[in-house]
């Protein structure tokens, strides 16, 4: 076993668990881009083209903005848990404002990892922080999404294309999890 020290806390990493063969794969459930104006709903997309260090082609909110925040991801299972906790019917794809919604993988476990998503490689560098727009969907949603329950922020490490149904395959641990820095 290998121990990593994170700001005074000890995090134990099993050397087998940070190997690609031990990492579970998920799938891309749906894809979305932001509308042309802030506050516009996300638009479903059949595919996303991702450019290294730039983001999602055609997404005015994140593409080529000089930030590490280039792609956002959340697990559909997490969205379903939030809806159930609030007594809501299922929340439709794209409503919680993520570019990529996944199934079958707990993205939060892989903060600090690179993962192949379609033919692109993303670096999951921090948990997403929920904004006030989540309470516009349903009062209380923002609070439920605290404590890293709103998906992850990613930087494009290698350009590629993503379509629904593609695998989300963790590749390697790059750096221990750390707080979000824009």
How does this model look, in words?
With 182 residues, this protein is mostly beta strands. The protein has a single domain, classed as PK beta-barrel domain-like (M1 Pyruvate Kinase, Domain 3, Beta Barrel), CATH 2.40.33.20. The chain contains three helices and 13 strands. It has a seven-stranded mixed β-barrel. The chain has a three-stranded antiparallel sheet with strand order 6-5-12, with no helix packed on it. Strands 1-2 form a two-stranded antiparallel sheet. Strand 9 and strand 10 form a beta hairpin. The longest helix is centred in the middle third of the chain and has 10 residues.
- CATH fold name: M1 Pyruvate Kinase, Domain 3
Q: Based on the coordinates given, report the CATH architecture.
A: Beta Barrel
Averaged pLDDT, please? 80
Query: Which residue ranges are poorly predicted, with pLDDT under 50 across at least 5 consecutive positions?
Result: 1-16
Oligomer: single chain
Extended strand count: 13
The helix count comes to 3
Largest sheet: 7 strands, mixed, barrel
Name of the CATH first level:
Mainly Beta
Rg over CA atoms: 16 Å
Overall morphology: globular
Q: Secondary structure elements and their pairing?
A:
Layout lengths: L1 E5 L2 E5 L12 E8 L9 E2 L2 E5 L3 E2 L14 E5 H10 L14 E4 L9 E5 L2 E8 L5 H5 L3 H4 L7 E7 L1 E4 L3 E7 L9
Parallel strand pairs: 7-8
Antiparallel strand pairs: 1-2, 3-4, 3-8, 3-13, 5-6, 5-12, 7-11, 9-10, 9-13, 10-11
What are the main properties of this structure?
single chain, 182 residues, mainly beta, M1 Pyruvate Kinase, Domain 3, 3-stranded antiparallel sheet, 13 strands, globular, disordered N terminus
């Amino acid at each position: 076993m290998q121990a990593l020290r994170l700001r005074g806390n000890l995090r134990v990493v099993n050397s087998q668990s940070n190997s690609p063969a031990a990492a579970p794969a998920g799938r891309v459930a749906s894809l979305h881009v932001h509308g042309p104006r802030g506050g516009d709903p996300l638009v479903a997309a059949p595919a996303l083209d991702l450019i290294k260090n730039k983001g999602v082609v055609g997404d005015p909110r994140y593409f080529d903005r000089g930030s590490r925040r280039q792609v956002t991801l959340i697990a559909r299972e997490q969205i379903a848990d939030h809806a159930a906790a609030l007594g809501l019917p299922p929340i439709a794809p794209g409503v919680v404002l993520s570019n990529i919604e996944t199934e079958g993988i707990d993205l939060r476990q892989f903060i600090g990892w690179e993962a192949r998503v379609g033919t692109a490689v993303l670096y999951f560098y921090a948990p997403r922080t929920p904004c006030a727009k989540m309470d516009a969907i349903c009062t209380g949603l923002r609070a439920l999404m605290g404590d890293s329950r709103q998906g992850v922020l990613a930087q494009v490490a290698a350009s590629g294309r993503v379509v629904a149904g593609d695998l989300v395959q963790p590749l390697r641990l790059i750096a221990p999890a750390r707080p979000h820095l824009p």
